[in-house]
Amino acid sequence: MSKSKKYQDGLEKMREVIGDIGEGVVNSFQDIAPDLTRYIIEFPFGEIYSRTGLDLQKKQLVTLSSLVTQGDTEQALGVHIGGALNVGLTPNEIIEAFLQLLPYAGWPKVQNAINIAAKVFEAHKVAPEFNNPTKQNKKEV
User: Fold this and answer.
1) How far apart are CA 118 and CA 45, in angstroms?
2) pTM over 0.70
C-alpha cells in the first residue's frame, strides 16, 4: 500500500525534529494499533509541525511545556527533549523552560521532567552549564 503525501511529509518532518528514534516509537504500535502509527505521523508531524507560524525550537518548547504539565508522559517527554536538542535548543534552555513551569505545573512534574532530561542529556553527551541566570539578566549600571 502506498503512503499518502501527508504521511510522507509527516515522516520527513518527524525525522527532522526527533530523528530516527521517532520511527521506533511509532512503529512500536504497528502490530497492535497501526492506525495510531499513521495518526502520529500524519497529524502532529504532517500537519502541526509543518505549519510555518513558529520555528521548530519554539514548537519544541511548547510541546515540552505541554508534556510536563500533563504529567505521566515520560516516553513522549524523553523523545521530545531529544527533539529539542536536535532542533538546536540547549540543555540550559530546556532546564530554564522547565523551571518556568514550577508555579504552573508544580514541583513534582518539574522534578520528574528534569530527571528525564538528565537521562536524555547523558545519552546525547550534553549537560547544562551551571550558572546563575538572574545575574546574567541584570543590566550593569
Assistant:
1) 26
2) yes
The residue extents of the domains of the chain are 1-51, 55-131
Asked if residue 116 lies in contact with residue 81, where contact means CB atoms within 8 angstroms, the answer is yes
CB 17 within 8 A of CB 89: no
At 113-130, the pLDDT tens digits run: 999 999 999 999 999 997
The architecture CATH gives domain 55-131: Up-down Bundle (1.20)
b/e map 63-97, b = 16+ CB within 10 Å: bbbebbeeeebeebbbbbbbbbbbbebebebbbeb
pLDDT at 62: 97
* Distant-in-sequence, close-in-space partners of 133: CB < 8 Å, separation ≥ 6: 92, 96
C-alpha cell at 7: 504521511
Q: What is the pLDDT of residues 36-75, one digit of tens each?
A: 989 999 999 999 999 999 999 999 999 999 999 999 999 9
Asked whether the beta carbons of 17 and 83 are under 8 A apart, the reply is yes
